[in-house]
Backbone:
């Protein structure tokens, strides 16, 4: 069974940086996109950024210019470089891999990593 393993969360002061990483425990040959979502207490999970295997990238407006997503398709790994962090970025961050096959779409999710931005 494939698991997504995340790392890189933690506590950082406003204006600081963190780099998240997510790797699949086994190779997924049918991946079409990798991305990051976040969920703050009392709020719905929301897309932060996503990257397709064709290198197309999509960012949420609230992170444009501050966060950078990158991926290594051969290693089934996705990264999220987060700069100029703000207290409102505090949330649990989840990585997501989207796979497609003849049977349709399947989503893989990481367990989540806490990011706390506070002075």
Residues:
């Amino acid at each position: 069974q494939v698991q997504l393993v995340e790392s890189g969360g933690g506590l950082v002061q406003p204006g600081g940086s963190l780099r998240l990483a997510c790797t699949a425990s086994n190779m997924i040959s049918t991946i079409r996109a990798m991305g990051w979502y976040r969920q703050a207490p009392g709020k719905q999970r929301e897309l932060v950024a996503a990257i397709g295997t064709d290198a197309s990238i999509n960012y949420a407006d609230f992170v444009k210019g501050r966060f950078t997503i990158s991926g290594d398709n051969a290693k089934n790994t996705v990264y999220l470089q987060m700069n100029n962090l703000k207290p409102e970025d505090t949330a649990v961050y989840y990585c997501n891999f989207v796979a497609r096959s003849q049977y349709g779409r399947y989503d893989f999710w990481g367990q989540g990593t806490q990011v706390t931005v506070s002075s």
User: Anything to note?
Assistant: The chain has no helices and eleven strands.
